[in-house]
# Entry
Amino acid sequence: MSQQTEIKVTFDCPASLIFKTITDQATLCQFTQSPCVSELRPGGLHRMYGDTIQGEYVTIEENKKIEMKWKFKDWESFS
# Structure
């Protein structure tokens, strides 16, 4: 069974800082203190914590919107 979840959060900082933290590979590695991959393009990979968490970029609007698919490495498909 498929389920869709939408989460909206407000942060008291510039959108560019959040965008960079989530999408810039070097910044993401520093933030998580683990190996990460971030290929910032639709269809690009997003991996954190040594591939334990896996994502794929779907839609990107710089400093405005990031839509992704996510899964744990032992799940068969993205949710």
